[in-house]
Specification:
The protein is α/β, with parallel strands linked by helices. The protein folds into six domains: 3-75 and 220-261, ATPase, nucleotide binding domain (Nucleotidyltransferase, domain 5, 2-Layer Sandwich); 80-214, 3-Layer(aba) Sandwich (Rossmann fold); 266-331 and 424-485, 2-Layer Sandwich (Nucleotidyltransferase, domain 5); 335-422, no CATH class; 491-608, Dna Ligase, domain 1 (2-Layer Sandwich); 624-674, no CATH class. A nine-stranded mixed β-sheet has the order 19-14-13-24-25-37-36-33-30, sandwiched between helices. Strands 3-2-1-4-11-12 form a six-stranded mixed β-sheet. A hairpin with a 4-residue loop joins strand 31 (630-635) and strand 32. Helix 1 crosses helix 8 (202-233), helix 10 (369-375) crosses helix 12 (413-438) and helix 12 crosses helix 13. The radius of gyration is 26 Å and the shape is globular.
Length: 692
């Protein structure tokens, strides 16, 4: 018997999905921010207990463990990372401050720039210069380099980013600077731009390398501790880590590029969402994940969740590695409700896992969204919470709402709780509108897929506000991102730069770059035990018109287990250029076929398949009205009324729940708001539709 285990470390809970054939087992434990590996091991112990075996037996039988984490994101959100410095080419010291003139809100004159990861005093330059063709214009001044490194050392720098002009073409000076840092400041972490992001443009490469230097030590330390603990407990395989691109890869592959695990948890949910949508014939999806700390929004179109490889602003910093587009809002069950200058606000601060909301009974003192929906009756102190880990407590909740909210707002406790419910819902709905409008998408054309522990509580009311007709809620929604990671394929997505006019490009040079990428990717796949013949290779070329800043990736060929050598010739180049003109027309509404485009580089997406969860849909069972197990006083948006309560594990395919109703699943609660009804499909998942 073998298992596959997905793990999603969140700010409040750490979620687990164990896949045994077609059977899925879910677990949740409280996160341990001081060392997230503790929560991971505690959750694995609970999974083992649920299977009636020891932890060692579970790990020995585990075919794969796939892991996503918020460690890198938390470092950026909280600005808690190592003291970071930057070494760059003379004359380029202030490139990070220029930010290409980008400002998140151009109308907000008071908007301050983000905190500098490497402030100017820790950004030092070195005389050297590499030309665009890779030739050396100015040799590296090693004496000046030593003085700069020693200067960073006197400032207590713990991590250094090195980003030199055109190092992605010829990295000789970057490599030498790295050697000097190791010699002069042993133990200091080093991020080299030609390893982190070996391509232009300059600002994007430098920004990405600096963010990598900031989050890298924390991510690497955490993953090393986790690998050591897993190995010590009996796990003998490679740990697979979710990437922001939507693929997974081994811990060793990510050692030089820990930045690639940013937003890895939400990416798992989007990949799972694409699979669920395809299985249920709903390929255009709005995916929303509301957990304990954050609310994540993403869009899947045509069953695909493409990763943007360039212009990704993440927590206000440019990160130019492939990333699935996810907008994150500080709105979760643990988001703190407070009054600021006479106005009610929700988040972005969160009570987190410790002490958590007041109703957790762990010493929390500030009102949160979870406390508000407990007052509204959407949650109950009589029900088990988080899979029976503990029960919610009403004690102290009303007093805190009276002190912090109802008193200052001159309203009742229940009115204050309802206003918190309305405000957090409005914040989340606005985040959806920003995400869809920014891509020119009408949300009314989408179905809404809700997951996370709190997503199903708000799903139908959000759909009502957005004009969406259909809501999908997987029964596995409380740990859906963890399950989605098991649907992600091992993937390596890398680029190499080659700046040249398409008319002057050397076919042999392009093939050589692809061969380099192929050899690197296959090396990692083979080391991880994946057969070469099962690796699919997607060869792409990045092109743009002269004068443009951004390139389009054009698909050139897809091959499986074959060498890149020999397949690309003059005819293939001509077809690629023709396809670029077509793609530019599709993307921007025009093309310039009279102009020869420029090549900016090549890209290789290498992927292999692994067993994944089976998602299904359909309604073949005879529909029948479900019977409630009881009722309680609850406010579903139109005042308090006695509301039927349904026990989720007792519902079977074909069961129907009409509004108003509350369905209590093991790890989540599904609220069927007035005007809606829920049906259980053949897979045991929920589809909420507007009532006839």
């Amino acid at each position: 018997m073998s298992y596959r285990i997905g793990i999603d470390v969140g700010g409040t809970f750490t979620d687990f999905a164990l896949l045994d054939g077609h059977e899925v087992l879910l677990e949740k434990v409280s996160s341990t921010p001081e060392d997230n590996s503790q929560a991971v091991m505690a959750g694995l112990e609970k999974l083992a207990q649920a299977r009636g075996i020891s932890l060692g037996e579970l790990l020995a039988d585990a075919e794969a463990i796939v892991h996503g984490t918020t460690v890198a994101d938390n470092a950026l959100i909280q600005m808690k990372g190592p003291v970071t410095g930057l070494l760059t080419t003379a004359g380029f010291r202030d490139e990070l401050e220029l930010r290409r003139g980008y400002k998140e809100d151009i109308w907000d004159v008071r908007l301050e720039p983000p905190p500098a990861i490497a402030p100017r005093r820790r950004r030092l330059t070195v005389p050297e210069r590499i030309r665009a063709d890779g030739s050396i214009h100015t040799p590296l001044d090693e004496a000046a380099a030593r003085r700069a490194i020693e200067g960073l050392g006197r400032q207590g720098v713990e991590s250094i980013a090195i980003s030199l002009l055109f190092a992605f073409v010829n990295p000789v000076h970057e490599k030498r600077l790295g050697e000097l840092v190791q010699e002069i400041l042993p133990g200091v972490a080093i991020s080299l731009s030609h390893r982190v992001l070996p391509r232009a443009p300059e600002f994007e490469r430098t920004s990405t390398t600096v963010v990598n230097a900031f989050v890298g030590p924390g991510v690497s330390g955490y993953l090393d501790r986790l690998v050591e603990r897993l190995s010590g407990a009996g796990y003998a395989r490679d740990l697979l880590v979710m990437q922001s691109s939507g693929g997974v890869m081994t811990r060793e592959y990510l050692r030089d590029m820990p930045i690639r695990i940013l937003a890895s948890g939400p990416a798992g949910g989007v990949i799972g969402g694409a699979r669920v949508g395809a299985a249920k014939s709903e390929e255009d999806l709005l995916c929303v994940d509301m957990g304990g700390t954050s609310y994540d929004v993403s869009v899947v179109m045509g069953g695909q969740a493409p990763a943007n490889a360039g212009w990704n602003w993440h927590h206000r910093y440019l990160v130019a590695v492939p990333m699935i587009q996810v907008e994150t809002l500080g709105a979760g069950g643990g988001s703190i409700c407070h009054v600021h200058h006479g106005a009610l606000e929700v988040g972005p601060e969160s009570a987190g896992a410790e002490p958590g909301p007041i109703c957790y009974g762990r010493g929390g003192q500030q009102p949160t969204v979870t406390d508000a929906i407990l007052i509204l009756g959407l949650l109950s102190p009589d029900s088990e919470f988080a899979g029976g880990a503990f029960s919610l407590k009403r004690e102290g909740v009303d007093a805190a709402f009276e002190r912090e909210l109802a008193g200052p707002l001159s309203c009742s406790v229940e009115e204050a709780a309802f206003d918190c419910w309305r405000l957090v819902n409005a914040n989340m709905t606005q985040a959806v509108r920003r995400t869809t409008a920014g891509r020119g998408i009408d949300p009314r054309s989408l179905s809404l897929l809700a997951y996370g522990g709190n997503g199903p509580v708000f799903a139908a009311i959000q759909a009502e506000d957005l004009g969406i007709e259909c809501v999908l809620i997987p029964r596995t929604s409380p740990a859906f991102s963890a399950l989605g990671m098991l649907a992600a394929s091992p993937t390596i997505d890398e680029e190499r730069s080659y700046l040249v006019s398409a008319q002057e490009a050397e076919i042999s040079r392009i093939s050589a770059l692809w061969q380099e990428l192929e050899a690197r990717a296959l090396g990692y796949f083979l080391d991880a035990g994946f057969p070469k013949e099962e690796v699919a290779l997607r060869f792409q070329m990045n092109l743009r018109y002269p004068g443009q800043n951004w390139s389009l990736s054009v698909e050139v060929a897809t091959k499986g287990g074959e060498s890149a050598a020999g397949f690309f010739d003059a005819g293939a180049m001509e077809k690629t250029i023709h396809r670029f003109h077509e793609l530019h027309e599709e993307e921007y509404g025009y093309n310039r076929q009279q102009e020869s485009p420029e090549i900016t580089g090549v890209r290789l997406v290498s992927r292999t398949s692994i067993p994944e969860p089976v998602f299904a849909g359909g309604f073949s069972a005879e529909p029948r009205q479900a019977e409630p197990q009881g009722s309680r006083r609850a406010n579903l948006g139109r005042g308090f009324e006695e509301t039927p309560i349904y026990r989720g594990p007792d519902l079977a395919p074909g069961d129907r729940v009409t509004a108003p109703g509350i369905i209590e699943e093991t790890f989540t609660t599904i609220v069927v708001y007035p005007g809606w009804e829920a049906r259980v499909d053949d897979a045991g998942d929920y589809r909420l539709m507007r009532a006839p």
